[in-house]
Design goal:
alpha+beta; Phosphoribosyl-aminoimidazole Synthetase, Chain A, domain 2; globular
C-alpha cells in the first residue's frame, strides 16, 4: 500500500502537527474542513464527460466528505490549473458549472486560485458544519451492526465499460454513474441524530478499503456477508468490493439503532438502499463470508 505508506510517513514526521488527521474531514473550531484534487486523465476525461459533469463530480466528492462526518457543506474554495489546450468554450463551461452547482447545493464560493499548465486540475477546500454528533472512523464498537447506504461498484463498472468498450445491457446507466456518482447527501446529518450510530466513512476508494479504515482506526474486526450487499444490475463482484468513486456511506451502529435506521431506509428507498451487511467484533481484520479480504482499492502510485 505505497500510497498509505507515503501518507503515514508524512504524518509520522509531522507528529503533533497532524493531530486529528485521519477522517473524511478535519474538525476545527466547530467546522468540518476537507481538501481534495481532481486531475485530468486520472479523475476525469473531457473526451468522455462534459466540463459540467467533471466539475460536479469533483464537488460532490468533497460534499461527500462532509456528509460522512455528519455535516452539511456550507462553503468552498475552488482553485484550478487550466489546461492550456482547453479552448474558451471549455473554460467558460467550467466556470459556469462551478457557479451553477454551488447555487444548486446552496454552497458559498469563497474564492480560490487560478493557474495554467499542461494538465487540468480542480482543487477544492470544503467547509461544513455538523448540527449533531460528528461521525468518526474510529467509533465502531464490538457488537455494532455494519450498514451500507448506496450501491457500491457502479462507478468502477462504468469505467471498465468506457475503457474496454464492453457491451452491457445496462451500459449507459453505469457509464452515467461513473461520470456523475450520486452520493447519499443529507443522510450523514440524519444519521448523526440517531443515538447509537458509531463509525462512518464514504466509499471514495472502495468498500474493502473503507472497511479496512474503520477496522484499523476503531481497532475492531469486521465481518460482512456477500449475500447482504446491495447489487446494482450489471455490477460484478470485483467492483462491489474494490470499485471506487461511488461515495456510498459505510457506517456502524448499535443494535438498538436498527429501528431508526430502517425508518431512514424507507424514507430514502427511492434514491438508494440502506442495508445491514455485517457486524463488528473484537479483534482485527476484515472478512467476507469468513475469508479475510485483501484490500485492492484505487492507488495513485
Amino acid at each position: 500500500m505505497k500510497e498509505i505508506e507515503w501518507i503515514n510517513n508524512l504524518l509520522g514526521k509531522a507528529g503533533s502537527l497532524a493531530k486529528g488527521v485521519g477522517d473524511d474531514a478535519f474538525v476545527f473550531d466547530n467546522y468540518l474542513i476537507s481538501a481534495d484534487m481532481s486531475v485530468e486523465g486520472t479523475h476525469f476525461r473531457l473526451d468522455w464527460s462534459t466540463p459540467e459533469q467533471a466539475v460536479e463530480k469533483c464537488l460532490l466528492s468533497n460534499f461527500s466528505d462532509i456528509n460522512a462526518m455528519g455535516g452539511k457543506t456550507k462553503a468552498i474554495l475552488f482553485s484550478i490549473c487550466i489546461n492550456k489546450k482547453w479552448d474558451k468554450k471549455t473554460r467558460d463551461e467550467i466556470a459556469n458549472a462551478v457557479v451553477k452547482i454551488c447555487k444548486k447545493y446552496k454552497v458559498k464560493l469563497l474564492g480560490g486560485d487560478t493557474v495554467g499548465g499542461g494538465t487540468g486540475v480542480f482543487s477544492v477546500t470544503v467547509f461544513g458544519k455538523a448540527k449533531g454528533k460528528i461521525l468518526l472512523r474510529s467509533a465502531a464498537k464490538n457488537g455494532d451492526d455494519v450498514w451500507l447506504a448506496g450501491y457500491p461498484g457502479c462507478s468502477g463498472a462504468g469505467l471498465e465499460i468506457l475503457e474496454k468498450k464492453i457491451k452491457n445491457f445496462n451500459k449507459q446507466k453505469l457509464i452515467n454513474l461513473h461520470m456523475l456518482p450520486r452520493p447519499p447527501l443529507m443522510l450523514g446529518e440524519q444519521l448523526a441524530k440517531i443515538k447509537g450510530i458509531g463509525a462512518c466513512i464514504d466509499l471514495s476508494d472502495s468498500l474493502a478499503e473503507s472497511l479496512w479504515h474503520i477496522s484499523v482506526q476503531s481497532e475492531i474486526q469486521i465481518k460482512i456477508k456477500e449475500k447482504l450487499l446491495p447489487v446494482f444490475p450489471g455490477v460484478a463482484k470485483k467492483f462491489l468490493l474494490n470499485g471506487g468513486e461511488d461515495y456510498c456511506l459505510l457506517f456502524t451502529a448499535k443494535k438498538t439503532a436498527k429501528k431508526n435506521i430502517l425508518l431512514l431506509a424507507k424514507k430514502f428507498s427511492k434514491e438508494f438502499p440502506i442495508c445491514k451487511i455485517g457486524e463488528a467484533k473484537n479483534g482485527n481484520g476484515i472478512f467476507l463470508d469468513g475469508k479475510e479480504l485483501e484490500v485492492k482499492g484505487w492507488r495513485h502510485f
